[in-house]
Design a protein that fits this description.
This protein is α/β, with parallel strands linked by helices. About 45% of the residues lie in helices and about 25% in strands. The chain has one domain: 3-Layer(aba) Sandwich (Rossmann fold), CATH 3.40.50. The protein has 5 helices and 5 strands, in the order E-H-E-H-E-H-E-H-E-H. The chain binds magnesium ion.
Length: about 120
């Protein structure tokens, strides 16, 4: 099975993204912060399944999105990562890119914009 990881501390945003990506034919795994996501991605890959994509919020408790990208890239150099940022966090995009983020979306986003970005990154 191929999973899209939806990593955000907001239940509302996770649900919105889940609704948008549900029809793309992937399983969705939600995580509420970077550490939770690292634990869950390890579980998924250890059981022989794949991560197709990570969609990651920047501001989260426990482990933020920037730290997550750095940690995730230590063991996975290729899975695309989309960052969810706000206008005021645009300066973080360069840092995220340096650590290995593949793309980003500025919140609030249109569902079509998310789908378009996913289709561009996931082959
Ligand atoms: Mg947040």
């Amino acid at each position: 099975m191929k999973y899209i990881m939806v990593i955000d501390d907001s239940v509302t945003i996770r649900s919105t993204i889940k609704l948008v990506v549900k029809n793309l034919g992937y399983a969705v795994m939600e995580a509420e912060n970077g550490q939770d996501a690292l634990d869950k991605t390890a579980k998924i890959t250890n059981s022989g399944d794949d991560i197709a994509l990570c969609i990651v919020d920047v501001n989260m408790p426990v482990m933020d999105g920037i730290k997550f990208v750095g940690e995730f890239r230590k063991t996975d150099q290729f899975t695309p990562i989309i960052m969810l940022t706000t206008e005021s966090q645009e300066s973080l995009i360069d840092e995220a890119k340096r650590l290995g983020a593949s793309g980003w979306i500025i919140k609030p986003f249109q569902p079509n914009k998310l789908i378009e970005t996913i289709k561009k990154l996931v082959k």
